[in-house]
Every structure is written in C-alpha cells, then in structure tokens.
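Sat 14:20. Reprocessing the chain from the morning session after the first attempt stalled halfway. Input below, unchanged.
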Amino acid sequence: MNTWPSSERGFTLVEVLVGLIILSIALLAAMRGIGAIANTQMAVSTRQVALWSADNWHIQMQLQQEWPDLGTTLIPCPQMQYQLICQRKVMSTPNPLFRRVEIGVFLKGDSDLNSPQLAWLVQVIVRKNAGVL
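Finished this time. Tokens:
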C-alpha cells in the first residue's frame, strides 16, 4: 500500500476548480470590457463620418452661394461604408438677409429620422448682393 508522506501536499480538485472559476470570471470581465471599448470606438467613428457629411453640405452651400428656400429637405449623403441621410432645415430669422440652416445627419434605416441623430451642424447664411446690411 502506497502512502504519501505528509510533507508533500498538493492542491485538491475542489481548489483547482475554484481557481479556474475565478480565472474564467476575470477573463469574461476583461472580454466584456474590450467589447465595450470596441463599440465605443465604432460609435465615435460613425459620428465623425456623419460630421464630415454635414460639413460637406455646409461647404457646398458656401461655394455655390445659393440662397436656400425655406423648408426641410432630405438628401442622401453616403460616406465610406455608411449610408447616411442628411436633413437640411432652412428657417427664417428676424433679419430678412439671414437664413438659419440646420443640417442633421442620420443613419439610413427602416425609419430614417427615428434613428438617433449622429451629427448636427447649424449655420447662418447671408444673402449676397442684397445691398447694404
């Protein structure tokens, strides 16, 4: 009959299983944290691209020097792999030589304008060649 000397002690199966459970919980928490960081980075990237789309419409209006009509217009404005919708709202101001233009950018989907607004840009357009202010 083999007997183990009492000076040599090892880990029991229960101790090993408890250690593995603790290790697996720690690894799951780390993976969840990495996933949250990846989701945050993707959201920041999407919002940056949406802001570029809004800025493109802002610059295009400046270059064309157009006097926009009052009202709301929906314009597709895709950027990179994102299918975006730009909503341009033109409103009057107390001064008839100025127009307020709001450009909102949404991710294209089933209900485009019910999705969260990714970017919002506001500008004031001045009517050119309208005389002295």
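The chain has one helix and four strands.
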